[in-house]
Design brief:
The protein has 10 helices and 14 strands. The protein is elongated, with a radius of gyration of 23 Å. It has a 6-stranded parallel sheet with strand order 1-4-3-2-5-6, with helices on both faces. Strands 9-10-13-12-11-14 form a 6-stranded antiparallel barrel. Strands 7-8 form a two-stranded antiparallel sheet. The longest helix has 17 residues. Helices cover 30% and strands 27% of the residues. It has 314 residues and is an alpha/beta fold. It folds into 2 domains: 157 residues, Rossmann fold; 123 residues, Beta Barrel (Elongation Factor Tu (Ef-tu), domain 3), CATH 2.40.30.30.
């Protein structure tokens, strides 16, 4: 796969380019259908499939106060797109200047002149160009003028409704990670680096890896059954995301102590080794319960054992 970064970075047009365009945040099953369709049509035409995506999200530039957290970092988005068979991923930096490019300029300048596009694959609600004024109908008219074809792919339906990134975000925020998995085609993922903590888990008999998470969308506080991947190795365990209320003193709030802000702790069953400083990926398999305060560390230990049994990790 060829990765191109920059609005003016295409030096040589891919042969018989079949293009699909979007943020593709989360690379959910609807995005997957678009990318696979572009890859299939490119192979049939003896050409190359090109996925155009943007970074950062336009909302972060145009309306940062309203911007939604990402579902995944750009690097992971590119990995998923590559795995779907894309020949070229073109990442265009989204800036205020780029936001003024009209739909007509986008088609003529990027698709026609730079890519010499053969086909464009989009969904029925696709919008593009300045203020998202470009519609599928306009794209079809421009296609007739410039000699390429538009392929409209129907959305993927799950649970009676179309899959979208906004729907996935709602599910993740609600802790419905199993339903989100159906929309993503894989588990919800979190990313981060293992750092040193207070070693409370070890004292309780359940050592944990403290993960400093990358700034992406987080589910609600609670205990989750997870898989952790590091250096090609998978391990299963429990993740607690929250403020560890059992260890708050009476009248104390999380803001009183930096260790008591939102933390991610993962107990890996049967794991042996040192993860400090490692970059890890977490897959959320099931939300077991909300985080809550226990009367004593011993009561917390009993609950952890019940959580392990429920996740079939005991």
């Amino acid at each position: 796969m060829r990765l191109i970064i920059g609005r003016n970075a295409v030096r040589r047009a891919p042969r018989r380019a079949v293009v699909t365009i979007g943020m593709f945040d989360g690379v959910h099953v609807g995005h997957q259908r678009l990318i696979r369709t572009a890859a299939r049509l490119a192979r049939r035409a003896g050409g190359r499939s090109v996925v155009i995506t943007f970074d950062p999200d336009p909302q972060q530039v145009l309306a940062p106060r309203l911007a939604q957290p990402r579902l995944m970092p750009l690097a992971r988005r590119v990995e998923h797109i590559r795995a779907l068979g894309a020949d070229v991923v073109w990442v265009i930096p989204f800036t205020r200047a780029f936001s003024t490019v009209s739909a007509e300029q986008f088609v003529c300048g990027l698709l026609v002149k730079r890519l010499r596009v053969l086909r464009v694959v989009v969904g029925p609600s696709f919008a593009f160009g300045r203020a998202r004024r470009g519609t599928v109908a306009l794209l079809r008219r421009l296609a007739q003028r410039h000699g390429f074809r538009v392929v409209v792919v129907p959305p993927v339906i799950r649970g009676g409704a179309p899959v979208s990134s906004s729907r996935v975000r709602r599910l993740v925020r609600a802790g419905a990670v199993e339903e989100a998995r159906h929309c993503l085609g894989r588990p919800v993922e979190l990313f981060g680096t293992v750092v040193r903590g207070e070693r409370r888990g070890r004292l309780l008999g359940f050592p944990t890896a403290n993960v400093r998470l990358v700034n992406t969308l987080l589910p609600p506080a609670g205990v989750y059954h997870v898989r952790l991947r590091q250096a090609g190795r998978w391990s299963r365990g429990l993740m607690n995301l929250g403020v560890r209320p059992t260890f708050l003193k009476r009248g104390q709030t999380p803001q009183d102590d930096p260790f008591l802000s939102l933390v991610c702790e993962v107990h890996l069953v049967g794991f042996r080794g040192n993860l400090y400083g490692s970059s890890v990926r977490l897959e959320l398999l099931q939300r077991l319960r909300a985080e809550r305060r226990f009367g004593s560390p011993a009561a917390l230990v009993r609950q952890i054992r019940r959580d392990l049994a429920r996740a079939r990790l005991a």
